[in-house]
Protein backbone atom coordinates (compact mmCIF):
# COMPACT_ATOMS: atom_id res chain seq x y z
CA UNK A 1 0.00 0.00 0.00
CA UNK A 2 1.39 3.45 -0.86
CA UNK A 3 2.51 5.42 2.17
CA UNK A 4 1.31 8.79 0.93
CA UNK A 5 -2.24 8.59 2.29
CA UNK A 6 -1.91 5.53 4.50
CA UNK A 7 -3.62 6.25 7.80
CA UNK A 8 -4.75 9.71 6.68
CA UNK A 9 -8.40 10.76 7.02
CA UNK A 10 -10.24 12.59 4.23
CA UNK A 11 -13.73 14.06 4.35
CA UNK A 12 -15.36 14.15 0.90
CA UNK A 13 -18.66 15.97 0.42
CA UNK A 14 -21.03 14.62 -2.20
CA UNK A 15 -18.98 11.45 -2.14
CA UNK A 16 -21.63 8.86 -2.97
CA UNK A 17 -21.70 9.03 -6.77
CA UNK A 18 -20.37 10.61 -9.95
CA UNK A 19 -17.15 12.59 -9.48
CA UNK A 20 -17.32 12.30 -5.70
CA UNK A 21 -17.34 8.51 -5.85
CA UNK A 22 -14.37 8.53 -8.25
CA UNK A 23 -12.45 10.74 -5.82
CA UNK A 24 -13.36 8.41 -2.96
CA UNK A 25 -12.20 5.29 -4.81
CA UNK A 26 -8.92 6.88 -5.90
CA UNK A 27 -8.04 8.21 -2.42
CA UNK A 28 -9.07 4.96 -0.77
CA UNK A 29 -6.87 3.00 -3.18
CA UNK A 30 -3.96 5.17 -2.03
CA UNK A 31 -4.55 4.27 1.60
CA UNK A 32 -6.88 6.97 2.94
CA UNK A 33 -9.66 6.42 5.44
CA UNK A 34 -12.78 8.25 4.32
CA UNK A 35 -15.79 10.02 5.72
CA UNK A 36 -18.20 10.24 2.81
CA UNK A 37 -20.92 12.86 3.01
CA UNK A 38 -24.17 12.47 1.10
CA UNK A 39 -27.53 14.21 1.12
CA UNK A 40 -30.12 12.03 -0.62
CA UNK A 41 -28.08 9.28 -2.30
CA UNK A 42 -28.38 6.78 0.54
CA UNK A 43 -28.43 3.68 -1.66
CA UNK A 44 -25.31 4.72 -3.58
CA UNK A 45 -23.55 5.78 -0.38
CA UNK A 46 -24.19 2.46 1.34
CA UNK A 47 -23.09 0.53 -1.74
CA UNK A 48 -19.84 2.48 -2.00
CA UNK A 49 -19.12 2.09 1.71
CA UNK A 50 -19.67 -1.65 1.39
CA UNK A 51 -17.39 -1.88 -1.63
CA UNK A 52 -14.54 0.02 -0.03
CA UNK A 53 -14.83 -1.59 3.40
CA UNK A 54 -14.71 -4.99 1.72
CA UNK A 55 -11.32 -3.96 0.34
CA UNK A 56 -10.14 -2.56 3.69
CA UNK A 57 -12.24 -3.12 6.80
CA UNK A 58 -13.58 -0.15 8.79
CA UNK A 59 -11.89 2.37 6.51
CA UNK A 60 -15.01 4.20 5.31
CA UNK A 61 -17.89 5.80 7.19
CA UNK A 62 -20.90 7.83 6.07
CA UNK A 63 -22.47 11.06 7.21
CA UNK A 64 -25.83 12.28 5.91
CA UNK A 65 -26.50 16.01 5.90
CA UNK A 66 -28.08 18.84 3.96
CA UNK A 67 -25.29 21.31 3.28
CA UNK A 68 -27.84 24.14 3.20
CA UNK A 69 -28.28 23.61 6.95
CA UNK A 70 -25.59 25.96 8.18
CA UNK A 71 -25.87 24.80 11.77
CA UNK A 72 -25.15 21.21 10.80
CA UNK A 73 -21.88 21.81 8.93
CA UNK A 74 -19.65 21.80 11.99
CA UNK A 75 -21.36 18.57 13.06
CA UNK A 76 -20.10 16.87 9.88
CA UNK A 77 -16.54 17.70 10.90
CA UNK A 78 -17.14 16.63 14.52
CA UNK A 79 -18.55 13.29 13.35
CA UNK A 80 -15.48 12.72 11.21
CA UNK A 81 -13.01 13.46 14.01
CA UNK A 82 -15.02 11.43 16.51
CA UNK A 83 -15.02 8.45 14.16
CA UNK A 84 -11.40 8.54 12.99
CA UNK A 85 -9.71 10.68 15.70
CA UNK A 86 -8.11 13.04 13.16
CA UNK A 87 -8.70 14.95 9.92
CA UNK A 88 -6.04 15.35 7.24
CA UNK A 89 -7.98 16.66 4.25
CA UNK A 90 -11.31 18.13 3.20
CA UNK A 91 -12.54 17.79 -0.38
CA UNK A 92 -15.42 20.20 -1.03
CA UNK A 93 -16.96 18.34 -3.97
CA UNK A 94 -20.73 18.58 -3.41
CA UNK A 95 -22.44 20.94 -5.84
CA UNK A 96 -25.82 22.13 -7.07
CA UNK A 97 -26.20 22.96 -10.77
CA UNK A 98 -29.23 24.35 -12.61
CA UNK A 99 -29.96 27.38 -14.84
CA UNK A 100 -30.99 30.77 -13.46
CA UNK A 101 -31.45 33.20 -16.35
CA UNK A 102 -31.84 36.90 -15.63
CA UNK A 103 -35.49 37.48 -14.73
CA UNK A 104 -35.93 34.05 -13.16
CA UNK A 105 -33.60 34.27 -10.17
CA UNK A 106 -35.24 34.06 -6.75
CA UNK A 107 -34.18 34.00 -3.14
CA UNK A 108 -34.72 30.22 -3.16
CA UNK A 109 -32.43 29.66 -6.15
CA UNK A 110 -29.87 32.00 -4.61
CA UNK A 111 -29.94 30.02 -1.35
CA UNK A 112 -29.61 26.70 -3.16
CA UNK A 113 -26.77 27.58 -5.51
CA UNK A 114 -24.77 29.93 -3.28
CA UNK A 115 -25.45 27.74 -0.26
CA UNK A 116 -24.19 24.49 -1.74
CA UNK A 117 -21.39 25.83 -3.95
CA UNK A 118 -19.90 28.56 -1.76
CA UNK A 119 -21.34 28.92 1.73
CA UNK A 120 -21.01 25.24 2.65
CA UNK A 121 -17.35 24.99 1.55
CA UNK A 122 -16.59 28.16 3.52
CA UNK A 123 -18.12 27.01 6.79
CA UNK A 124 -16.95 23.41 6.44
CA UNK A 125 -13.43 24.73 5.92
CA UNK A 126 -13.77 26.95 8.97
CA UNK A 127 -14.91 24.02 11.08
CA UNK A 128 -12.17 21.78 9.72
CA UNK A 129 -9.35 24.32 10.01
CA UNK A 130 -8.30 23.64 13.65
CA UNK A 131 -8.06 19.91 12.97
CA UNK A 132 -6.24 20.39 9.67
CA UNK A 133 -3.71 22.68 11.32
CA UNK A 134 -2.87 19.91 13.77
CA UNK A 135 -2.13 17.45 10.96
CA UNK A 136 -0.62 19.83 8.41
CA UNK A 137 -3.64 19.12 6.26
CA UNK A 138 -5.08 20.18 2.95
CA UNK A 139 -8.32 21.49 1.45
CA UNK A 140 -9.26 20.88 -2.18
CA UNK A 141 -12.29 22.66 -3.63
CA UNK A 142 -14.01 21.46 -6.81
CA UNK A 143 -14.76 24.61 -8.79
CA UNK A 144 -15.57 24.92 -12.51
CA UNK A 145 -13.97 26.45 -15.59
CA UNK A 146 -17.07 28.69 -15.73
CA UNK A 147 -15.88 30.44 -12.59
CA UNK A 148 -13.63 32.40 -14.95
CA UNK A 149 -15.83 32.36 -18.07
CA UNK A 150 -19.51 32.45 -16.98
CA UNK A 151 -21.90 29.94 -18.52
CA UNK A 152 -24.85 31.63 -20.24
CA UNK A 153 -28.12 31.38 -18.30
CA UNK A 154 -26.30 29.97 -15.26
CA UNK A 155 -25.77 33.28 -13.50
CA UNK A 156 -25.95 32.15 -9.88
CA UNK A 157 -23.95 28.97 -10.46
CA UNK A 158 -21.20 30.93 -12.20
CA UNK A 159 -21.15 33.51 -9.39
CA UNK A 160 -20.96 30.78 -6.75
CA UNK A 161 -18.06 28.98 -8.42
CA UNK A 162 -16.24 32.29 -8.96
CA UNK A 163 -16.65 32.89 -5.25
CA UNK A 164 -15.24 29.43 -4.54
CA UNK A 165 -12.10 30.29 -6.51
CA UNK A 166 -11.80 33.45 -4.41
CA UNK A 167 -12.35 31.43 -1.26
CA UNK A 168 -9.58 29.06 -2.31
CA UNK A 169 -7.11 31.91 -2.63
CA UNK A 170 -8.23 33.65 0.54
CA UNK A 171 -8.07 30.52 2.70
CA UNK A 172 -4.67 29.66 1.24
CA UNK A 173 -3.44 32.88 2.79
CA UNK A 174 -5.45 32.67 6.00
CA UNK A 175 -4.58 29.06 6.86
CA UNK A 176 -0.91 29.10 5.86
CA UNK A 177 1.59 27.83 6.70
CA UNK A 178 -0.01 24.77 8.27
CA UNK A 179 -2.78 24.13 5.73
CA UNK A 180 -2.62 24.20 1.93
CA UNK A 181 -5.78 25.14 -0.01
CA UNK A 182 -6.19 24.49 -3.75
CA UNK A 183 -8.89 23.75 -6.29
CA UNK A 184 -9.65 21.61 -9.32
CA UNK A 185 -11.80 23.11 -12.10
CA UNK A 186 -13.45 20.43 -14.26
CA UNK A 187 -14.56 20.96 -17.83
CA UNK A 188 -16.71 18.46 -19.79
CA UNK A 189 -16.46 15.43 -17.51
CA UNK A 190 -20.00 14.25 -16.75
CA UNK A 191 -23.17 15.74 -18.14
CA UNK A 192 -25.97 16.74 -15.74
CA UNK A 193 -28.48 14.03 -14.83
CA UNK A 194 -31.39 16.23 -15.94
CA UNK A 195 -30.44 16.22 -19.66
CA UNK A 196 -30.00 20.00 -19.62
CA UNK A 197 -27.53 19.56 -22.49
CA UNK A 198 -28.90 17.70 -25.52
CA UNK A 199 -26.67 15.71 -27.86
CA UNK A 200 -26.11 18.64 -30.20
CA UNK A 201 -25.05 20.87 -27.29
CA UNK A 202 -22.71 18.18 -26.00
CA UNK A 203 -21.04 17.69 -29.35
CA UNK A 204 -20.64 21.45 -29.77
CA UNK A 205 -18.88 21.67 -26.41
CA UNK A 206 -16.60 18.75 -27.24
CA UNK A 207 -15.79 20.20 -30.67
CA UNK A 208 -14.64 23.43 -28.99
CA UNK A 209 -12.42 21.52 -26.55
CA UNK A 210 -8.84 21.33 -27.83
CA UNK A 211 -8.45 17.64 -26.93
CA UNK A 212 -11.76 16.88 -28.73
CA UNK A 213 -13.10 14.49 -26.11
CA UNK A 214 -14.77 14.30 -22.75
CA UNK A 215 -12.77 13.69 -19.63
CA UNK A 216 -13.57 11.10 -16.98
CA UNK A 217 -14.34 11.41 -13.27
CA UNK A 218 -11.03 9.73 -12.56
CA UNK A 219 -9.24 12.60 -14.31
CA UNK A 220 -10.59 14.83 -11.55
CA UNK A 221 -9.76 12.27 -8.88
CA UNK A 222 -6.13 12.07 -10.04
CA UNK A 223 -5.83 15.86 -9.87
CA UNK A 224 -7.24 15.85 -6.34
CA UNK A 225 -4.75 13.15 -5.34
CA UNK A 226 -1.91 15.21 -6.82
CA UNK A 227 -2.91 18.27 -4.80
CA UNK A 228 -3.26 16.25 -1.61
CA UNK A 229 -0.03 14.29 -1.88
CA UNK A 230 2.47 15.55 -4.43
CA UNK A 231 1.94 19.32 -4.57
CA UNK A 232 3.53 20.07 -1.24
CA UNK A 233 4.73 23.54 -2.30
CA UNK A 234 1.48 24.57 -4.01
CA UNK A 235 -1.30 26.59 -2.38
CA UNK A 236 -3.92 29.03 -3.62
CA UNK A 237 -3.95 27.47 -7.09
CA UNK A 238 -6.66 26.12 -9.37
CA UNK A 239 -5.88 23.30 -11.79
CA UNK A 240 -8.09 23.22 -14.90
CA UNK A 241 -8.90 19.63 -15.88
CA UNK A 242 -10.90 20.31 -19.00
CA UNK A 243 -9.05 19.15 -22.09
CA UNK A 244 -7.96 22.73 -22.67
CA UNK A 245 -11.50 24.09 -22.94
CA UNK A 246 -10.72 27.09 -20.73
CA UNK A 247 -8.32 28.44 -23.37
CA UNK A 248 -10.89 28.03 -26.14
CA UNK A 249 -13.97 29.60 -24.53
Structure overview:
This protein is of the alpha/beta class. 45% of the residues lie in helices and 14% in strands. The protein has seven helices and seven strands, in the order βαβαβαβαβαβααβ. It has helices at residues 18-29, 42-55, 73-84, 107-135, 155-175, 199-207, 217-230, and strands at 9-12, 33-38, 60-64, 89-92, 138-142, 180-186, 238-241. A seven-stranded parallel β-sheet has the order 3-2-1-4-5-6-7, with helices on both faces. α1 (18-29) links the parallel β1 and β2 (33-38). α1 packs across α7 (217-230), α3 (73-84) packs parallel to α4 (107-135) and α4 packs parallel to α5 (155-175). The longest helix has 29 residues, at 107-135. The radius of gyration is 17 Å and the shape is globular.
| Broad structural category | alpha/beta
Number of DSSP-assigned strands: 7
- Could you give the distance between the termini? 41 Å
Shape: globular
Mean pLDDT: 92
Beta-strand percent range: 5-15%
So how many helices?
A: 7
Sequence of secondary-structure elements: EHEHEHEHEHEHHE
| Helix content, binned percent | 40-55%
Rg of Cα set = 17 Å
Name some characteristics of this structure.
249 residues, alpha/beta, seven-stranded parallel sheet, 7 strands
Task: Write the topology of this structure.
Blueprint: E1 9-12, H1 18-29, E2 33-38, H2 42-55, E3 60-64, H3 73-84, E4 89-92, H4 107-135, E5 138-142, H5 155-175, E6 180-186, H6 199-207, H7 217-230, E7 238-241
Parallel strand pairs: 1-2, 1-4, 2-3, 4-5, 5-6, 6-7
Give a brief rundown of this model.
The protein is an alpha/beta fold. The chain has helices spanning 18-29, 42-55, 73-84, 107-135, 155-175, 199-207, 217-230; strands spanning 9-12, 33-38, 60-64, 89-92, 138-142, 180-186, 238-241. Helix 2 links the parallel strand 2 and strand 3.
